[in-house]
Automatic annotation (TrEMBL):
Organism: Trichobilharzia regenti (Nasal bird schistosome)
Coiled coil: none
PANTHER family in alphabetical order: PROTEIN FAM136A
Domain of life: Eukaryota
Family that this chain belongs to: Belongs to the FAM136 family.
Listed GO CC annotations: cytoplasm
Protein name as catalogued: Protein FAM136A
One of the Pfam families matching this protein, by short name: DUF842
């Protein structure tokens, strides 16, 4: 690999690492602020189901399944929203690659190829920056609202 290719690879790795770190940090806040509380309520609720020694097995199982509903919904919600967020980032980066590819001719020189690669990295960086500066905060706000609603809905299940 030549020096430019090494630099491009390092830039790409750095871009990916920063993106993942930012997303993980934001989702970690949701985990501690919402998901763990919902999970703790699931376990408390399930414990109450199991402590009912007069209930038949099938009733205890139904009780536990009802307890699990808010947690399952929270996980599905998180997965769906994060998938959409990542898809938007990937689509933007793919569009960057397509635009750079469209500028190349079939007999493009090595310097033109490297310029196109640099353009893809620069454009992809803009995609990531945009997603992290506006898309991620919007995602977190949406998830907080929806998880808060789930926490409120589960109060009836835990009682």
């Amino acid at each position: 690999m030549d020096k430019l290719a090494d630099t491009l690879q390092r830039d790409l790795n750095k871009l990916q690492t920063n993106y993942q770190k930012s997303v993980e940090e934001a989702l970690g806040i949701l985990d501690t602020g919402y998901l763990r509380k919902i999970q703790a309520n699931f376990f408390r609720c399930g414990l109450k189901c199991c402590e009912n020694t007069s209930a038949p097995v099938d009733e205890v199982q139904r009780c536990i399944q009802r307890c699990e509903t808010p947690l399952s919904r929270a996980h599905e919600l998180m997965q769906s929203e994060v998938d959409m967020f990542q898809t938007r980032t990937q689509q933007c980066a793919a569009e960057c690659a397509n635009r750079a590819r469209d500028k190349l001719t079939t007999d493009a020189s090595e310097s033109q190829m490297k310029a196109a690669q640099r353009e893809v990295i620069t454009c992809s960086q803009a995609c990531v920056d945009n997603q992290l500066s506006s898309g991620l905060p919007a995602l977190i706000t949406r998830l907080k609202e929806q998880l808060q609603k789930l926490k409120q809905d589960e109060v009836g299940v835990v009682s």
